[in-house]
Specification:
Elements: E1 26-30, H1 54-64, E2 68-72, H2 82-90, E3 95-99, H3 107-116, E4 118-125, E5 127-128, E6 131-132, H4 143-153, E7 156-161, H5 166-176, E8 180-182, H6 197-208, E9 211-215, H7 218-221, H8 232-241, E10 246-248, H9 264-274, H10 278-293
Length: 302
């Protein structure tokens, strides 16, 4: 274990939401890590997560009452997608994945991942102090090479970015011709407010329909735990912009969180409070992820 990769806190025990989610609800942003003796962490990494294997994630989903989940490759495992792919193989009906890959990945490997439930690739364009903040991620530059192969598979591009850098990045994103998913409401600082050029560019992109955003990471925007009231404005602005291009995610097990460790059950209850319209909840939790990640919508009760 590298001394420069500090250990993360373990996730909190999850509380069961008072009001259950609709049938077919999907948590579109979570990670599985380890167990380290089976799926080693990358030597070059920015954090050392606690083991958060598939069984623990499924238990969390069951507590929330969610039918489905999307596992996003975490940078602690670097380019080795084995833990995530193993989880998809074990739960092919319940789980989908977002992988990472360098530009020289073999097309046959991407096709194999697609068969196993991968539906997109994640790129890292999140800078602090002029440098990428997470070691182990794939820079956005690689998407120029990978985009044609991704388009053939019907995949989308998931982007870890602070929206302050989004306006300068939009021309490249549009040139790739892929649907784009922005993590964690653009991972801005809630104290900056919604009127910044970066967040306004995200609202326009979502409104135009070529870009999706995850209504996740309130605990990454705000330091006002546990209710994150200053993050609510970003959530509601995105819902007003275009609920057809939004999904929700728990971010479990919340790696490298700054501040207090959140409770995924409470995060979901905040989603319910901040999105009171049941029809919009249904679209964000069920319809949008079913389409984007290739799930079948549950049949209505007769």
């Amino acid at each position: 274990m590298m001394s420069s990769a500090p250990p993360c806190l373990p996730p909190r025990e999850v509380t069961r939401p008072r009001n259950p989610p609709p049938a077919g609800a999907c948590d579109t942003h979570a990670h599985v890590f380890g167990p380290a003796d089976q799926f080693a962490y990358a030597e070059e990494r920015s954090y050392t997560p606690p083991d958060a294997p598939l069984a623990k994630y499924l238990s969390m989903l069951d507590t929330l009452g969610f039918a489905r989940g999307v596992l996003v490759q975490g940078s602690a495992h670097g380019r080795d997608n084995s833990a995530m792919l193993d989880a998809l193989t074990r739960c092919p009906d319940r789980l989908r994945g977002i992988a990472v890959a360098d530009a020289d990945v073999a097309p046959a490997k991407l096709r194999e991942w697609n068969r196993r439930g991968v539906r997109g690739l994640r790129f890292n364009h999140f800078f602090r102090g002029g440098q990428l903040h997470y070691r182990g991620g794939v820079p956005l530059e690689a998407a120029k090479t990978l985009a044609p192969r991704m388009a053939e598979l019907g995949w989308h591009l998931q982007l870890w970015i602070d929206v302050k850098d989004l306006p300068d990045t939009i021309p490249l994103l549009k040139s790739l011709g892929l649907p784009v998913m922005i993590d964690h409401m653009g991972r801005t600082d809630a104290r900056a407010g919604t009127r910044t050029a970066g967040f306004q560019s995200l609202l326009r992109a979502v409104g135009e329909g070529w870009c999706f955003a995850k209504l996740s990471g309130a605990h990454r925007l705000s330091q006002q735990a546990p209710d994150y009231p200053d993050a609510r404005q970003f959530h509601q602005a995105l819902v007003a912009a275009n609920p057809e291009r939004l999904v929700w995610g728990s971010d479990w097990p919340h790696p490298r969180v700054e501040g207090k460790m959140p409770d995924a059950g409470h995060l979901y209850e905040l989603f319910q409070q901040w999105t009171p319209d049941p029809s919009i909840q249904q679209r964000i939790l069920v319809t949008n992820p079913a389409t984007l990640y290739g799930f079948f919508e549950p049949k209505a009760d007769r």
